[in-house]
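Dear Dr. K.,

Following up on our conversation at the group meeting, I've run the structure prediction for Permeases of the major facilitator superfamily from Frigoriglobus tundricola. I'm pasting the input sequence below exactly as I used it, so you can double-check it against your construct before we proceed with anything downstream. Let me know if the numbering doesn't match what you have in your notebook.
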Amino acid sequence: MTRADRDHLRTLAICHYVLGGLCFFFGGCAIIYLVIGLAIVADAPAPPGGNAPPPPEFLGWVFVGIAAFVLVFYWGLAAGLVLAGRCLDRRQGRTFCLVVAGFSCLFQPLGLVLGVFTFVVLQRPSVRDAFEPVREERPEPDAYDPD
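The predicted structure tokens came back this morning:
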């Protein structure tokens, strides 16, 4: 593996950490919708002077369901990105890194750029060889003589 390959892997690992943090932060914005949904379900008091009926309860559950899905998806993606960055640093789990790169493409536009560059770097033969486990040479069972 060349020095440029090592530099590219290190840069990709740092970018995975940064995007993981951004994904965690922006995914947390769904907490606002979760609170709104729980307030609708709990029949939060209406603003004073309002004669409008409260929203239906199912609408609150829709807010809660969508917010929960978004939270789990983005926080799971953030955890995967951080773990993939660690795998890139250690040169382990190439397939896992490729899968996370595919999912990171859903986090537009930064995730798309990071995912494409991750695919390009990890498809190089020299980088692919660096991720392969080193196999130890073992003597043949017939050739082994304990004496």
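Two things stood out to me. The chain has one domain: 3-43+56-128. Residues 57-90 form the longest helix (34 residues).

Best regards,
J.T.
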